[in-house]
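Worked example

This section walks through a single chain of length 332. The input is the sequence exactly as stored; nothing has been trimmed or padded.
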Amino acid sequence: MYTLNKFHHSKEKVVGFIKKEHFVFFGVVVVVVCAAVLVFLLPPKNFPVNDFIEVKKGTTMSEFSQQLKEEGYIKSVFLFQTISIALGGQGGLVAGDYSMGKTQNSPTLARRFTHGLYDLERIRIRFNEGDSVYVYADILDEKLPRFDKVQFLRIAEEKEGYLFPDTYIFFETADEQDVILELETVFEEKTAKIKKAVEASKRSFEDVVKMASIIEKEANRNKAEQQVIAGILWKRIDKGMLLQVDAPFKYYLNKGSFELTKEDLRSDHLYNTYTRKGLTPTPIGNPGLSTLIAVSNPTPSSYYFYLHDRKGNVHYAVTHEQHVANKKAYLK
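Given that input, the structure is written out below as tokens.
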């Protein structure tokens, strides 16, 4: 009886010892596995910070996971796919551009790509009335990381005058195509309101845009002054007179009125309204809505000439002699 009890007690000790050993072994395995998983979940050392990555429409989880691994965003394709499926269910990836502004681990990336968390900065950009596409290009080149200045100008030069000046908010991933499309769309929306006024003026819409782009530089931002000067310039065109305005020199020579030389005025350039009659071949900037309206509704007057003194005040004249007298009085 004693022997049996002793044997039974020893057996319990052996069993207990085995269970304890198994527990320690399995504990070590779990710790090792967890540590390995955590290591693979951490971002790679050379994570591409301050970059963007695009999820294209129709991209499969397998394709995108492999792309992330190859580009250095994740360490394990399997773990990323597993977490993505767990977080996103059957929804899969959400297409679009994603900003990689900082280092992020696999669970964070998986949540972002399955929930459309783009984390894109919105950038506010102001284009002033009368600015040319060259001014636009400099502003955009400074503000937008993906903007291609050369490509923008290649397209925008032909759209001068028709890219509406206003305040816009773009995502940081916007490129030149996005910008041009937005500015053109707004131009169409804004100018739809004045089409009837343009038709009533019996001027072509193209000529109104050209004239407005000139008035932006030739008149102060004062509706009454813009309308009077527009009336003078339309009348000079109708009478077959030279416009003789300085604004186009700023466009193609980057010179203001007080910087022009006699040689500049005599140079026979396409945009020189001292040597060539009519409007400039293209707009010389992008006019605002108020200027387009002013040009469509010019104020009739007896004036044929005007000038601005160095303080910006305008002085009108009916005859050339009066204009010459104004030059002597206000430009010396």
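What to look for: The chain has three domains: 51-115, 122-191, 199-330.
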